[in-house]
Design brief:
The protein is of the alpha/beta class. The chain has eleven helices and 15 strands. α1 (14-20) packs across α11.
């Protein structure tokens, strides 16, 4: 029997692909895990369309607050919960608050843990969550997971240390209901090999002219470069800086990474961005460039997630885990 996985805030499926395994990336095979997705959802229509074009199981379009009753029993809960709206409400003792509806979504993940009681959860978020609200928010988030019945640990993982050509730092929070499994778990070891950006970008002769910046944009950047400290041209012999969901709007006066090759500045293509995120080349983005960039930039790198899931399954095996939550 396989481990049953529920995926919240699934986006286009980077986290899910890593949880499943069974894909190729840059000449390396990432073997399939003994897992299956039994529920997946997201509120972004275009991300769901991409997801459903690439997976046999289908993601549900909708607000998780309206879909919770549809979630089946499962062994592992995964999700990169939105964090933009967390704030600390000044009470004694302090508690976790929120500024708008987006901030409430964290509690939906906690509610699923309380109701379904899966054996493990994996939560991913931006590094900035550690310092949010003068470093008060993160301990309260961990406390909420612990109060749901989980032994928790967290780590900042840099994608470039796991065979991915991107310096992307994200916080992973792992929680186990079983103390023995928790004690057996360790975060994946970093790789010695660093993958440079040049391994995943295409030859300039194959790049459409629409990805190059105009001479006017270049001159404007050069004129204001010292003042604005922008023009984030990447060293192709190193991993790329973090790509974001805004790559379609990348300019020479933004913080988004760009390329400077053969004396010309250009944006990445969607496929290059997908490679930088460690998506395999057969993962299709059947949408416009703008929507593809958003989905890619918001995703969890599949190879990074694969490494995390691999160690979770090892921990469950080490403690002779007996499936019961999804029986």
């Amino acid at each position: 029997m396989s481990f049953k996985v529920t995926s919240l805030f699934s986006g286009c499926g980077g986290m899910d692909l890593g949880a499943l395994g069974g894909f190729e990336y840059q000449g390396k095979h990432f073997e399939a895990h003994n897992t299956e997705i039994v529920f997946s959802s997201d509120i972004d229509k275009y991300a769901v369309d991409i997801y459903n074009n690439n997976f046999n199981h289908k993601s549900i379009l909708g607000d998780i607050r309206e879909l919770k009753d549809e979630i089946p029993k499962h062994d592992i809960l995964i999700g990169g919960f939105p964090c933009q709206s967390f704030s600390i409400v000044a009470q004694n003792p302090p508690r976790l608050g929120y500024k708008n509806d987006t901030g409430k979504l964290f509690f939906e993940m906690v509610d699923v843990l309380k109701k379904i009681k899966p054996s493990v959860f994996i939560a991913e978020n931006v590094k900035g969550i550690l310092s949010a609200n003068k470093k008060q928010a993160f301990p309260l988030i961990i406390n909420a997971f612990e109060e749901a019945g989980y032994y928790c640990c967290s780590e900042i993982l840099n994608a470039s240390k796991y065979g991915i050509p991107q310096k992307r730092e994200r916080v992973f929070i792992i929680g186990f209901r079983d103390k023995n499994a928790f004690d057996s778990f360790c975060f994946p070891k970093e790789n010695e090999e660093v993958i440079p950006l040049k391994k995943v970008i295409f030859s300039e002769c194959s790049i459409d002219e629409k990805y190059y910046f105009s001479e006017k944009a270049v001159q404007g950047m050069l004129k204001n470069k010292e003042k604005m400290n922008k023009g984030r041209a990447q060293n192709i012999n190193e991993p790329c800086n973090t790509i974001t969901a805004h790559l379609s709007k990348a300019s020479l006066n933004s913080v988004d990474p760009v390329l400077f090759i053969n004396d010309k500045y250009r944006r990445f293509t969607p496929r290059e961005a997908a490679r930088i995120q460690s998506f395999p080349d057969d993962f299709e983005f059947n949408t416009s460039d703008t929507r593809a960039f958003k989905a890619i930039g918001n995703a969890v790198p599949p190879v990074l997630m694969w490494n995390v899931m691999n160690n979770i399954i090892k921990a469950l095996s080490d403690c002779k885990y007996i499936k019961n939550s999804a029986a």
